[in-house]
């Protein structure tokens, strides 16, 4: 695991010596852990739980797949008529949680949620397999259906409707970006003496704390 480097500074004669931490950028640290997870985990390292709450504060959590992670935030795609999208419109905050069991690591990311731009969603949708694109058109995500047959019928209808041309992104399908205000890295250690490091962004600057496990 990447460690904070501690360096002595300001050691003018007679001055108080102090420890100054040179902090790693938490987004870079995330990228390092994520790259290791992609190499070493047996399951999909992009799978993450996303917790939302409705306007009354009722929580809901479900798995989604991370499609982009950079300085702007963490992006996933979904149906805009789904309960999670309703929650995010009512209360545009979320927490993500990755668990990488082979590496014995957990990462939590929380913050404000923005809609991704239409251009960005179009570009990502165009990369999806055709059957996934048709599935996005066919699925009224989280609405009741009369068994699998209704889904298969809807996929068949969409297949005929789109013919052989490109399948455009449905207007009811797009992405959300969680803009990180806090990122916590948890690394399992023997006897539950785990490492926890929390980074909080205040006024555009990341602040670091160690937490008791
Ligand atoms: C590993 C995994 C990955 C998933 N990825 C997505 C995803 O990227 N987008 C999505 O809308 N649903 C995804 N799902 C399904 C969601 O967990 C959920 O069932 C669905 O989005 C409906 O959620 P909602 O009713 O809370 O809106 C995934 C499920 C699993 C188990």
Automatic annotation (TrEMBL):
<feature type="binding site">
    <location>
        <begin position="62"/>
        <end position="67"/>
    </location>
    <ligand>
        <name>FMN</name>
    </ligand>
</feature>
<comment type="similarity">
    <text>Belongs to the pyridoxamine 5'-phosphate oxidase family.</text>
</comment>
<dbReference type="InterPro" id="IPR000659">
    <property type="entry name" value="Pyridox_Oxase"/>
</dbReference>
<keyword id="KW-0560">Oxidoreductase</keyword>
<feature type="domain" description="Pyridoxine 5'-phosphate oxidase dimerisation C-terminal">
    <location>
        <begin position="173"/>
        <end position="213"/>
    </location>
</feature>
<feature type="domain" description="Pyridoxamine 5'-phosphate oxidase N-terminal">
    <location>
        <begin position="42"/>
        <end position="156"/>
    </location>
</feature>
<dbReference type="InterPro" id="IPR019576">
    <property type="entry name" value="Pyridoxamine_oxidase_dimer_C"/>
</dbReference>
<feature type="binding site">
    <location>
        <position position="196"/>
    </location>
    <ligand>
        <name>FMN</name>
    </ligand>
</feature>
<dbReference type="Pfam" id="PF10590">
    <property type="entry name" value="PNP_phzG_C"/>
</dbReference>
<keyword id="KW-0285">Flavoprotein</keyword>
<dbReference type="GO" id="GO:0004733">
    <property type="term" value="F:pyridoxamine phosphate oxidase activity"/>
</dbReference>
<protein>
    <recommendedName>
        <fullName>Pyridoxamine 5'-phosphate oxidase</fullName>
        <ecNumber>1.4.3.5</ecNumber>
    </recommendedName>
</protein>
<dbReference type="Pfam" id="PF01243">
    <property type="entry name" value="PNPOx_N"/>
</dbReference>
<dbReference type="GO" id="GO:0008615">
    <property type="term" value="P:pyridoxine biosynthetic process"/>
</dbReference>
<dbReference type="GO" id="GO:0010181">
    <property type="term" value="F:FMN binding"/>
</dbReference>
<dbReference type="InterPro" id="IPR012349">
    <property type="entry name" value="Split_barrel_FMN-bd"/>
</dbReference>
<feature type="binding site">
    <location>
        <begin position="141"/>
        <end position="142"/>
    </location>
    <ligand>
        <name>FMN</name>
    </ligand>
</feature>
<feature type="binding site">
    <location>
        <begin position="77"/>
        <end position="78"/>
    </location>
    <ligand>
        <name>FMN</name>
    </ligand>
</feature>
<feature type="binding site">
    <location>
        <position position="106"/>
    </location>
    <ligand>
        <name>FMN</name>
    </ligand>
</feature>
<feature type="binding site">
    <location>
        <position position="186"/>
    </location>
    <ligand>
        <name>FMN</name>
    </ligand>
</feature>
<keyword id="KW-0288">FMN</keyword>
<feature type="binding site">
    <location>
        <position position="84"/>
    </location>
    <ligand>
        <name>FMN</name>
    </ligand>
</feature>
<dbReference type="InterPro" id="IPR011576">
    <property type="entry name" value="Pyridox_Oxase_N"/>
</dbReference>
């Amino acid at each position: 695991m990447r460690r904070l480097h501690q360096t002595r500074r300001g050691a003018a004669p007679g001055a108080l010596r102090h420890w100054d931490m040179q902090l790693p950028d938490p987004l870079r640290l995330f990228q390092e852990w994520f790259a290791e997870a992609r190499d070493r985990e047996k399951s999909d390292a992009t799978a993450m739980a996303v917790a939302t709450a409705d306007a009354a504060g009722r929580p809901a959590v479900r798995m989604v797949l991370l499609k982009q992670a950079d300085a702007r935030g963490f992006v996933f795609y979904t149906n805009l008529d789904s309960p999670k999208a309703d929650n995010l419109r009512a209360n545009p905050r979320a927490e993500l949680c990755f668990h990488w069991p082979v590496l014995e690591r957990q990462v939590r990311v929380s913050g404000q949620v923005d809609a991704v731009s239409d251009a960005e969603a179009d570009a990502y949708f165009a990369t999806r397999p055709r059957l996934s694109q048709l599935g996005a058109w066919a699925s009224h995500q989280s609405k009741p259906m009369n068994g699998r047959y209704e889904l298969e019928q809807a996929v068949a209808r969409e297949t005929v409707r789109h013919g052989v041309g490109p399948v455009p992104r449905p207007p009811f399908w797009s992405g959300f970006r969680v803009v990180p205000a806090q990122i916590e890295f948890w690394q399992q250690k023997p006897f539950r003496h785990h490492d926890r490091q929390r980074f909080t962004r205040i006024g555009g600057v990341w602040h670091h704390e160690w937490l008791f496990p």
